[in-house]
Amino acid sequence: MSNITEEINKRRTFAIISHPDAGKTTLTEKFLLYGGAINLAGSVKGKATARHAVSDWMEIEKERGISVTSSVLQFNYDGYCINILDTPGHQDFSEDTYRTLMAADSAVMVIDASKGVEAQTRKLFKVCGMRGIPIFTFINKMDRDANDTFELLDEIEKELGIATCPVNWPIGSGKRFKGVYDRHENHVLTFSDTEKGTKEGETTIISMDDEETLMEVLGDEALETLRDEIELLDGASVEFDLDEVRRGKLTPVFFGSALTNFGVEIFLQNFLKMATTPLPRISQGENVEPVENDFSAFVFKIQANMNKAHRDRIAFMRICSGKFDATKEVRHVQGGKNMRLSQPQQIMADERKILSEAYAGDIIGVFDPGIFSIGDTVCMPKDNICYEGIPTFAPEHFARVRQMDTMKRKQFIKGVNQIAQEGAIQIFQEFNTGMEEIIVGVVGVLQFDVLKYRLENEYNVEIKLEPLPYEHIRWIENKDEVDLAKLSGTSDMKKIKDLKGNPLLLFINQWSIGMTLDRNKGLVLSEFGRG
Ligand code: G4P
């Protein structure tokens, strides 16, 4: 095997999805500890400190004490090279959070055992589901009182529409949390330290045949419950099938506690075995295999003004095939130009490292003088690769935007267009009128503030945002077959178009969407726009 093939095959690139506070940061931190990247572990957690070192680029962040930037963490563990993509949550949830999922090959879904499936997980899951990438579930906080295990699994299946297969099974929860039963190995892993709370738990392995020790450690009540549950589980749950996992149809489920570090390493080990090597991506209808091709990558995110002094933009690229060599020229396909990627770097939680090489599966950030757009491809000049674009994700908040000073029309239009090109906002127009009225759509409300702030500070334009009541946007899949002028929806439906002239519909609620579909037979609506 060549060195390049070996490097690519040891890569696992995944995103962690969860609702805020489910324990994503804590779990990531523990992963890093196993990888020996101890110095990094603290910096993941330091939402208020370390992360700001990178994300100082915008005053608005400082004021609010949050981070609009996301980063990639790379570490080695057990012969694997792992890339964890951070998906910004909390208030900084934005379209970038979705786009990051486009760069991952699998996802780890962290669920709080006492809360079950929550809103943000549902949204992120939908995007993973669209790509059919493998999803691994870690049910966290078992050291606290948890919901019934069977009910949790049922909820995942019903709410998210994915089959579950527990790889291990919890023995109690909260103060009575004793450990987990490993179904494959048929043994129990005990957890020693629930009482004290924060100290890391010690693990002991007990075979299910060792009745005496089991009785001693678990007690007869917990042991009997466990035996009953295993029987029920064996009868009821679907068989483990790695192909189904890799197709994103079946999620392996693990239980543990990130805080007390119980069940984390077993999860990591199993996950790494089951997760795929970097997946091929589609270029003009054909798969580009990571190991069989020279360097190629696509831009999935653009971060503006990371360094205020330089007004620079960073384009984040996911390497899809081959090896990136900073000394070689590459081709920016959409721009039609050959170039050397400037200042290629790895953006970690609290540092940037200039890179000279990287491999398929890795994420690099490159200096962008304003030429890249989201979805663009770069490849070797001799190759003819052009990756499918990244879909546009449905904004959930809309506002009409007007500039205060009508004399500044030009700057206003330029600013709004540039910010939209970076992907921070989406812009639309009234269906029947020109550019006078601009409607802005965002995934997270913070983006409205970002827009206002940036227009004022970078383009010297003051704006007024007038919130609109719509929450749902739909692209018309069969737009060539539908006469939009004749389309009749509910009275609160609004017809708009994007800058390319594609028609879209805005709705206030799900009910209006249903009614509109009922009234217009043959109309096909989509939650994702084609990239
Ligand atoms: P997030 O990134 O998904 O938003 O969650 P984060 O890891 O920041 O965890 C949110 C809170 O939940 C933190 O508490 C964290 O310590 C706690 N937590 C995470 N995993 C576990 C677990 O397995 N068991 C228990 N009992 N708690 C867990 P906090 O009080 O908000 O923050 P901190 O003061 O501990 O930093």
Could you name the key traits of this structure?
531 residues; alpha+beta; Rossmann fold; Elongation Factor Tu (Ef-tu), domain 3; Alpha-Beta Plaits; 3 domains; 33 strands; binds guanosine-5',3'-tetraphosphate
Task: Summarize this structure briefly.
This protein is an alpha+beta fold. Helices cover 28% and strands 29% of the residues.
Structural class: alpha+beta
Number of domains: 3
In total, the number of strands is 33
Quote the CATH topology of the largest domain: Rossmann fold
Helical run tally: 15
The CATH superfamily of the largest domain bears the name P-loop containing nucleotide triphosphate hydrolases
Strand % is 25-35%
Bound molecules: guanosine-5',3'-tetraphosphate
Oligomer designation:
single chain
Runs with pLDDT <50, length 5+? 38-69
Question: Helix and strand layout, with pairings?
Answer:
Layout: H1 3-9, E1 11-18, H2 24-34, H3 38-45, H4 50-55, H5 59-64, E2 72-77, E3 80-85, H6 95-102, E4 106-112, H7 119-131, E5 135-140, H8 149-160, E6 163-166, E7 168-171, E8 179-182, E9 187-191, E10 203-207, H9 211-218, H10 220-236, H11 242-246, E11 250-255, H12 264-274, E12 281-283, E13 286-288, E14 296-304, E15 313-321, E16 323-325, E17 330-332, E18 337-339, E19 345-347, E20 352-354, E21 357-359, E22 363-368, E23 377-379, E24 392-393, E25 397-403, H13 409-421, E26 426-430, E27 438-442, H14 446-459, E28 463-468, E29 472-476, E30 494-498, E31 503-507, H15 510-519, E32 525-526, E33 528-529
Parallel strand pairs: 1-3, 1-4, 4-5, 5-11, 6-11
Antiparallel strand pairs: 2-3, 7-8, 8-9, 9-10, 12-13, 14-15, 14-23, 15-22, 16-21, 17-18, 17-23, 19-20, 24-33, 25-27, 25-28, 26-27, 26-30, 29-31, 29-32, 30-31
Bound molecules: guanosine-5',3'-tetraphosphate (G4P).
Guanosine-5',3'-tetraphosphate binds next to helix 2.
